[in-house]
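Hi everyone, sorry if this is the wrong subforum. Our group has a chain we'd like a structural model of before ordering constructs, and none of us has done structure prediction before. Sequence below.
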Amino acid sequence: MTRSRFLPLWAMVLTLMFGAVMGAVAIAPPVHAATAFASTAVNRGGGNCLDVPGSSTADGLQLIQWTCHGEANQNFTFTPVGGTTDQYGIGTSAGGRCVDVNGASGADNATIVQRACGTGAGQKFRLVPVTVSGTTDVFSLQSVSSGKCVTPAGDSSASGTGLVQLPCTGAAARTWRLPGFTGSGGGPTTPPTKTVRVYWLKPSDVPFDQRYPDGIAKVMREAQRYYRQELGKTFKLNTTVVEVVNGDQPRSWYENTPNGGDRYWWAVTNMQNELARKFGLNNPDSRWLNVGEISAEGEGAGGGASPGWVVLSGHDADGAAGTSGQSMNRWYGGMVHELGHAFGLPDSSSTDGTPMSASFYDYPDTHFSQSQKNQILGGPYGSFLS
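Answer:
Right subforum, don't worry. Here is the predicted structure as tokens:
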């Protein structure tokens, strides 16, 4: 696997001189794909967000709606209930509790609280799609135990209103937009084969931030445009470009758990192993070309690419999200470069004006050579281009 060139200039030059590479990363055997996702929940009645007041961890605390601010107490994990296709447990990122209908009550105005996560019926919810013109990912949050839906008391639009359950209707106050939702029906859809499949792995202690999936998607679409410009054909992306993956471990685990002899690769290799386990991926994988980004890095760490895979660490994700303060052209050029490796290209031996050299820093003023175009089109993933 070739290291990412998102490095300080001196390190980039050393990489060009000495061609730092590592062997293919070993990954765990495939198992059934997970379908969890992380998101805020925005009420359509007043535009406020589902909120754990004060980031409290207290059991029995009534949840509220509050002005959206994106902190951990407004971020939730939606985890499918085993043996079902349309039921979720909703976990709080702030306190490690679960959303619960108090007492699993069937009564109108029963409060919506948080409690220690369990298997009770009061902690199971269906995401019932609601069609709203011009808006996507809108649902009623329907309690499995009562058949009623989460709503601000009195259908209020006021920030600070406590949440209760009331009969499900199409009223705006009784529906929620889940911007992090990554699928349809019971969970994320599996992309068609011969697709570039993209993941953002969010460690368990990193709050959901919509800028990351949106930014990574923007980078991928620009790379898609560039490949069509250069090759006359390009790769396909999934309808939901970025699959948001709720990581099993905190950020420090990905950064500090050894995985091979070179610390540079630990965070991204730990990510790759988890993606492989959750989604049944191989290395390389003939079904998809996989791009994984993780919001973790560690000292001296980074990412890179090899045929069939791009694995990138925290500074790449930050750059795509627009939080690094650097020009987006750097991240566009970098993704074009890493995808070149995934399509089978080696690094150029000199700064030659192609994106497989340091010339990717000059993006968009960098172009594949005819030889590189031929290698991509005739390579193992050339059939992915159309």
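For your construct planning: DSSP finds seven helices and 22 strands in the chain. The two ends are 26 Å apart (CA to CA).
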